[in-house]
Design a protein that fits this description.
- It is globular, with a radius of gyration of 23 Å.
- Helix 10 (192-203) crosses helix 11, helix 11 (215-229) runs parallel beside helix 13 (251-261) and helix 14 (374-387) crosses helix 15 (423-437).
- The N and C termini lie far apart (62 Å).
- Strand 14 and strand 15 (353-360) form a beta hairpin.
- The strands form 4 sheets. Strands 6-3-7-8-9-10-11-15-14-13-12 form an 11-stranded mixed beta sheet, sandwiched between helices.
- It is α/β, with parallel strands linked by helices and 513 residues long.
- The protein is built from 18 helices and 22 strands.
- Helices cover 36% and strands 24% of the residues.
- It has helices at 3-24, 26-40, 45-49, 58-64, 70-81, 116-134, 164-169, 174-177, 184-187, 192-203, 215-229, 233-236, 251-261, 374-387, 423-437, 439-446, 462-469, 487-492, and strands at 95-101, 105-111, 143-146, 154-156, 159-162, 180-181, 208-213, 242-246, 266-273, 276-280, 289-291, 297-303, 325-332, 339-350, 353-360, 364-365, 372-373, 392-400, 409-416, 454-458, 496-502, 505-507.
- The protein has a domain at 364-507.
Length: 513
């Protein structure tokens, strides 16, 4: 046994025990954090603007502080960028995490001295809990990919600014530096395809034991490795035993990734964002990710159906129910207050508090009043694909609104690893599954207001080429599963090769509209 894996064992057991203790105190920890946040921020501009001094309870907080998105926070962020202190949190942020928003353009998310441990320690704790539960510590002695954005930081208002993953790269513990790939120089490459080629070059002959990233990126990496080596990933890297992933639902990518590896390996799911590291998979035996309840973040949960209401119900942790979809609202020790991060979650357990990410508040289809969400479309297509042994590469769904009565439908853009024998049969199965999941969609189809869904087949590498065409290939960028408009659909049109005009008919012509 090598020194790193040997030394990791006692630390892993300690963190594992601490994590288990935290499960029992989750609600109390949330109450403690809430009080600390309010007390610390009373003298900030935001605290004065919202009368934090008079807030004694969560009920008071709901009355004083409305839910906000980034646009509503922007005036405060601009003051910080001008160099002003004590705006959202005491002092000034130590970093800005720069991220691209779909509606707000570039966003600057503050990271404080108090919040940075949340970003650093959560991924560490996930690995240590895995070690303690499984006994697998050997991967700590091999090479590990911690893919990041460029670690080169600019200054905005005197504050170091960059992608969160690039910021975190500066905080990788020294004991992991020797094991970390790719190199600092490679991580600094901005062009994604050049960067990917360099990563392949640097890793193809190494003893890779852990690989982390979002699933679509890992698949691109595996494809390049197999192309260059002619080997499955599990053969190329015989000691590869842990895959760490997050950012999107793993299930649509799981079968193809497993096929590329050539054997089953352990996976660890994470729930990070620029605004905070919210949850991590603490067990290989239990479903879902453990909510980070004692890490400087206070959570509120809004029933998804109410998120666009003027005064939605705002639940605390002790009030949530398993199986319900909630929009996740956070208040943090970096100065975000009742902030809607845009993700929806569903608890699979409340003892302890484990959840899954079920979708995005802005990623839905309700062009006809059906309010179809990400979880429903993913479940519908995965069930159908499993029955027919169909492997998917990527997909997205958009409404097609026709001026003619009865001609509107949901259009599914799908890139297949193995194209099904019958597109129409697959379309019917997906449609039936979705109708069982969503009663509103079922009513619209049975009432002849909507036609059954239509599949448009995207050519091989079509989604990659689409992402390249909009300048969002690689890194943490991902394709939206659902859109309530035709923006993505229209951009994908040049990559379409076949479609079903309706259930029972197949054409190779590109669809109208």
């Amino acid at each position: 046994m090598k020194i790193k894996s040997f030394l990791a064992k006692p630390f892993a057991n300690y963190i594992y025990r601490q994590t288990r203790k935290g499960m029992a105190t989750a609600v109390a920890d949330q109450s403690k954090i809430f009080n600390q946040l309010i007390r610390t921020a009373q003298k900030t501009q935001f605290g004065r603007d919202h009368d934090f001094a008079s807030i004694k309870s969560h009920e008071d907080y709901v009355k004083k502080v409305p839910i906000r998105d980034y646009e509503a926070f922007k005036p405060y962020i601009e003051k910080i960028k001008e160099g002003k202190h004590n705006i959202l949190w005491k002092g000034v942020p130590i970093y800005f995490a720069k991220t691209s928003g779909t509606t707000s353009g570039v966003k600057y998310i503050p990271i404080s001295k108090e919040s940075i441990p949340n970003h650093i320690n959560t991924a560490r704790n996930a690995l240590l809990c895995y070690m303690a539960e499984t006994g697998n510590t050997k991967f700590a002695d091999g090479k590990m990919i911690f893919l990041s954005g460029s670690p080169v930081l600019e200054r905005v208002g005197g504050i170091p600014t960059g992608r969160l993953s690039g910021i975190v790269n500066h905080h990788v513990p020294k004991y992991l530096r020797a094991n970390q790939l790719p190199s600092y120089e490679t991580n600094c490459i901005e062009d994604w395809e050049q960067k990917l080629d360099k990563i392949v070059e640097e890793t193809i002959n190494e003893n890779m034991t852990l690989i982390s990233g979002i699933p679509p990126w890992m698949q691109m990496y595996f494809d390049r490795l197999m192309e260059k080596s002619g080997k499955k990933i599990g053969t190329l890297f015989p000691n590869f035993s842990v895959m760490v992933q997050g950012g999107v639902n793993f299930e649509p990518y799981k079968s193809k990734l497993t096929e590329s590896i050539g054997r089953t390996i352990d996976t660890i799911e994470l729930f990070p964002a620029s605004e905070g590291f919210f949850a991590f998979q603490d067990s290989q035996k239990e479903p879902g990710m453990l909510l980070n309840t004692d890490s400087g973040i206070f959570y509120e949960f809004v029933p998804v159906a109410e998120i666009h209401n003027e005064n939605p119900t705002r639940l605390t942790l002790k009030e949530v129910q398993p199986g319900e979809n909630y929009a996740l609202i956070i208040s943090t020790n970096a100065g975000l207050w009742a902030y809607n991060i845009g993700d929806t979650v569903k608890f699979v357990s409340t003892d302890p508090y484990r959840l899954i990410v079920s979708g995005r508040t802005k990623h839905y289809i309700s062009a006809f009043g059906e309010h179809v969400i990400v979880e429903e479309v993913e479940s519908a297509i995965l069930q159908a694909a499993k029955e027919d042994n169909i492997h998917l590469t990527e997909f997205t769904v958009a409404p097609f609104v026709s001026s003619s009565k009865g001609k509107s439908y949901h259009e599914w853009f799908i890139e297949f690893e193995n194209t099904p024998a019958s597109l129409s049969q697959l379309a019917k199965k997906i449609d039936d599954n979705l109708r069982k999941k969503n009663v509103y969609y079922d009513d619209l189809v049975s009432g002849n207001i909507l036609e059954p869904l239509k599949i448009t087949v995207i050519e091989k590498n079509g989604f990659v080429n689409y992402m390249k065409s909009i300048g969002k290939l690689g890194g943490q960028n991902k394709v939206a599963r659902l859109s309530n408009d035709r923006k993505i659909a229209d951009a994908l049109a040049p990559f379409a090769v076949a479609s079903t005009n309706n259930i029972g008919a197949v054409t190779s012509e590109k669809q109208e509209g």
